[in-house]
Design brief:
Elements: H1 3-11, H2 36-50, H3 56-61, H4 65-75
Amino acid sequence: MDLTKFIDNFADQFDETDPTEIKAETVFHELDEYSSLIALSIIAMVDEEYDVQLKGDDMRSAVTVEDLFNIVMSKAE
C-alpha cells in the first residue's frame, strides 16, 4: 500500500474537486465538496480497497489525507 495510490483512490471519491488539489498535506475537512456523504464513500473505498474498517472517529481525528492514510496503515493487517 502506498500513499500515492491512496491519494488517487481518495480523490476518486470527489466529483467536483480537481484531483490535483488533493495531496498528502490536504486538510480534507476544508474541501468545499467534503460532506458526510463523501466521508461514507471514503470509508467504503477503504473497506473495499484495503480491507480496513474505518469509523467516524477515525475520519474526524484525521486532519490531512496523509493522517487518514496512516490510520489505515495502522489498522491494516
